[in-house]
What does this fold into?
Amino acid sequence: MNVASTLHRVPPMLTGTRPLRTIGVAMLFSVAMLAGACGGHSEEPQSTAPAAAAPVVQPTATPPPAPPTVVEAAEPITFTNEQRINAALDDLATNELPVDLIAYDIIDTSTSSGLVNIEVCGWTGETVFDDVYLIRYRVPETPNDGQTEPQATLESANTTAEDCTNTTLIETALQATRDYDNYWSTVIEDPASYDEAEAAETLSPEFRDFVRDTIAEWIDQGQSYQNTYFDAGLPSTAIQPILFRSYEQDGFDVFELMTCRELPVDFGLYQGSVLIDDFREGSAGGRHATAQYFFTNQETEWSGLGVIERVWADCFGFNEEGWLAGINRILPDPVPWESLDT
It folds into this structure.
């Protein structure tokens, strides 16, 4: 078929408005597409499957660089206050002081620049008095080269105006009451047992001079005291707090103890086995006995100056004012009493 002649036979009304050339070109393009589709030659079909993806290679993680090492300057070593105080206390316990204290109690400790202050209640054992001492040690806060422990060096030791009560002084004075009770109860129950040499171990010369004639009279009359309250048991046998005071009088350092104990009902002065006097007349009618001990200290040893006794007393009869206030009202001089329990 001649494509060109066929086109010339197209009715005029189909070509009235469109140029023939344009239509012919379009038809030729269509025929060429058709001829390609109807021909015997075919191309190898192209695969439509997507191409295999290339393997993904993960990048190797690289650790961040280490921060630079900062070398800090070492802080200077300093000793704590506790270490410095302990060093001073150790020195106090092991080395001699300018004052010869045979006993002391720690009252307080404190620190200041380069110093440790220790307050002690000290007793020399030479008198009946104790004193507050301020003892200072030089203890630096920072060590010397190679030093691992603080070192204490005594700076000073001085008395102060403060008052105190040393426990060793009190304990030894209480032991003196027990020594006195053991000896004196034997003498008054058996006056013939009195021995001047033995008495010198417990009683002062002044007391021995005072009682010598009285003891001789007891022996002559065959008299003795029985069922005494001198039990050598203080402080456990006291029924009221033991009171004390210290002072100087007539050239003596005097230390007093006031005690109250139960009084046996058959206490009294006997001749043989016969009760002569139980001393109830004129008494308060209580069931107690007070003993006012007087001691002095001679060559670091307690020595008895005497005892004032009050039998058939009522140690609970002070009503609202109480035991301590009542004794201070009755026996105010030369100085006020204090209680061992405070």
User: Anything to note?
Assistant: The chain has two domains: 81-164, 168-339. The radius of gyration is 58 Å. The CA atoms of residues 223 and 271 lie 4 Å apart. The first strand starts at residue 103 and ends at 112.
